[in-house]
């Protein structure tokens, strides 16, 4: 299951995580974001214990979205040791996201 992230929890949940973290920057009104939402949830379950998967609503958490220069959504960032190691922009197939996550494990 995907974590619900916010500006307030981002540092603790993502930057200080001891496992890689996939963060889905999304908005409720975004069609492509809705398309990949079930995939993000699925990956959260599949990678439980090995990696974290979280979602951050850019409309409610603009500080973090701006800090990471999220210009279009969905944008998915993979963090490892507090740093962005991969960026995926747009709705992509589950296999693509899974391969990206596996690559940083």
TrEMBL record:
Keywords: Disulfide bond, Electron transport, Redox-active center, Transport. GO terms for molecular function: protein-disulfide reductase activity. One of its GO terms (cellular component) is cytoplasm. Residues 1-105 form the Thioredoxin domain. InterPro entries: Thioredoxin, Thioredoxin-like_sf, Thioredoxin_CS, Thioredoxin_domain. The record marks 24 as: Deprotonates C-terminal active site Cys. CDD domains: TRX_family. Disulfide bonds join 30-33. It comes from the Bacteria. The record marks 31-32 as: Contributes to redox potential value. It holds the Pfam family Thioredoxin. The active site is at residues 30, 33. PANTHER family: GEO12009P1. Belongs to the thioredoxin family. This is Thioredoxin.
